[in-house]
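Notebook entry, structure prediction.
Reason for the run: the old model in the group folder had no record of what sequence produced it. Starting over properly, with the input documented here first.
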Amino acid sequence: MCIAHRLPRVVGALVAVVMIMVGAVVSATPAQAASSSTTLCKGFSDCVGEGRTHSGYAGVYRGSFWNMRSGHNCTNYVAYRLTHGRLAARPAGANEAGSWGTAARRAGIPVTRTPRVGAVAFWRARHHGASSGGHVAYVEAVRPDGSIVISEDHLGGTFMWRVLRKNGGAWPSGFIQFPQSDGSPSGKLLWAQSAGDGGLRLSGTAGEPDVAAGQREYVVSVGGPREAAGVETFQFTTPYFRFIRLKTLRTRGATTMYLYALNTPGTAGTDTLLGTTPVTIS
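New structure, fully documented this time:
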């Protein structure tokens, strides 16, 4: 089993959305294992001893990547691979492993049935041996017979490499072809609404592919883009990929709200407008 992430809830000006992201692969039946899946190695040291790399994950797996839960699990490992040696941004909605394919499609990221080296193989919930949370793995090789070689991690400390036979009983639901990022924050304004007495409540999500999980800076402008004269703006920080924020404003009535994620100074990329929406502040 493989658990992706669990966020605590913070009450007050910053309210973190609790996100339980579960991704798992359960053992296939003996017939399936024999016909569609072959384990090449298990464990960091054993795999390295057989010439199959973990790409440095063994030394840092207790850290969080893409704000996934740290340690042995499928989503944290794949997020690590997507941000080390390459640069890919986490799409909004990529929470538990089984959600990655849908989240990628919604973000305009190519999702295909054709494997490619460097693609992310994903299993929807309960598809071909996956649990209710799904599973993700990293495609290391595509063989001439159409089979693929994957590396993956699981809750419980089982890092492994496997060969999956084409269209067999362990074959993934699809493959996500993540594009190269320029390092800019990536995310989405989810919603905004009046909270009464001048209050604005908003929710958004963002990450930065070339920065470790941690504090993220946002700017909100009300009444126009942040560079426009006379608009009301405020800035805040949150460590969470998805958040809810409450702020009391001077502005009243029908207006437009803009949410920006600020690029971390000294890193590649630029500030990103995550979205804009009309809102009436009462």
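Summary: The CA atoms of residues 120 and 138 lie 5 Å apart.
The old model has been moved to the deprecated folder.
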